[in-house]
Amino acid sequence: MKKIFAVLLIGFFASFLVACADVDSKDIRTSGIYAEIHIRAQDSSAHVLTRLRTGSALDNDTVLLSAGDQLSASVSGRSVPLYETESQGYGGVLDNVAGGSEIIVKLTRMNGIDAPNSRATLPKEFDITAPAPTATYNAGESITVAWSPSDSSNTVSVSYSLDCREYDEIGIPSGAAYGRTYSIADSGTHTALIDEILNVVGTQDKLVRGVSCPMEVAVERTNYGTLDNALTKGGTISAKREMSVLVSVTP
User: Fold this and answer.
1) From the centroid of its chain, how far is CA 236?
2) Residue range(s) occupied by CATH 2.60.40 in the chain
3) Is 219:183 a contact under the CB 8 Å cutoff?
4) Per-residue model confidence as pLDDT tens digits over 23-43
5) Regarding predicted confidence, which is higher, 219 or 196?
6) d(CA 242, CA 219)
7) Spelled out in words, what is the top-level CATH class assigned to the domain 2-123+222-239?
8) The domain at 127-221+245-250 falls in which architecture?
């Protein structure tokens, strides 16, 4: 799970590297801040990732906290500060957080209007019961994923990610990485064809046949929360829980 979270963290912040400039928070009103808050459960810990910008488009400026402005996250009366990351976001970890807990993210201003009440509820715990770790699959077969407990009132995303590449003597990869995600009702089960997972447009000719490669199967639940009323520019806050298992596939 740690590796998965690291990849997600890199992907989350990399998508914003096209921002054209930075703006100090002291030079902008709370109403002019667009907030994107992502909460991810990793085992019993909740990782909070926050990005502040001047708008929703990718070419908008990044807002950097200054002049004593602070971000923090709390659950059940426990609070942790969110510190600046290398990618100009703000992150922190809340430990020992149970599923169903409400997490609150607070923006505190020294000379402006606070935004103390952005909140989302962490999805409850579940386990992947199938497939078994190290299970193997071949082209032409199907794979069934099962998890428990299910939640018929909600939806989940089930993703399959694999890397069927070989490397030459100087470390140059051949073949291609694959991935397919399905958004479905949270029924507790999903079946997919291996050939359908591999049938990614533009990559079939690069597929390395007859070579076993690892495939990560992940089930993710997402709850969307509400931003503080002071953040009138808009944004999003979501809380996610992901469980995964690693199997093998031979195209």
Assistant:
1) 13
2) 2-123+222-239, 127-221+245-250
3) no
4) 999 999 999 999 999 999 978
5) 219
6) 6
7) mainly beta
8) Sandwich (2.60)
